[in-house]
Design goal:
single chain, mainly beta, 7-stranded mixed beta sheet, 4-stranded antiparallel beta sheet, 11 strands, 49% strand, globular
């Protein structure tokens, strides 16, 4: 079993920045690829970013490319999402997820464990 705990969400103005963190425990962190997803009210959870086990490969949704950056610290069992130039459309609950098996990075079905989510609100 894996426990994932997100933190760092909050209220920020348009153009501002936030850094989300996700601390993992329960299994070897370096054995999992990690992803960030978000969910707008009334909509399905959507892919934001992902990072490979060693951190050498990253993947981004087109909507956040150039503004968000995913990184990981395997020694600290933590994955981060640096969010810059935030827009009102980025307002959502953000979830981190761990992926131990094969399959796509881009869909929720490719992940095995999920955190409880953290709210990000961008005010205009």
């Amino acid at each position: 079993q894996v426990q994932l705990v997100e933190s760092g969400g909050g209220l920020v103005q348009v153009g501002g920045s936030l850094r989300l963190s996700c601390a993992a425990s329960g299994r070897t962190f370096s054995g999992s690829a990690m992803g960030w997803f978000r969910q707008h009210p009334g909509k399905e959870r959507e892919f934001v970013a992902a990072i490979s086990r060693a951190g050498g490969r990253t993947y981004y949704a087109n909507s956040v490319k150039g503004r968000f950056a995913i990184s990981r610290d395997n020694a600290q069992s933590t994955v981060y999402l640096q969010m810059n130039s935030l827009e009102p459309e980025d307002t959502a609950v953000y979830y981190c997820a761990a992926k131990y098996e094969g399959g796509t990075y881009y869909n929720t079905g490719g992940y095995d464990y999920w955190g409880q989510g953290t709210q990000v609100t961008v005010s205009s």
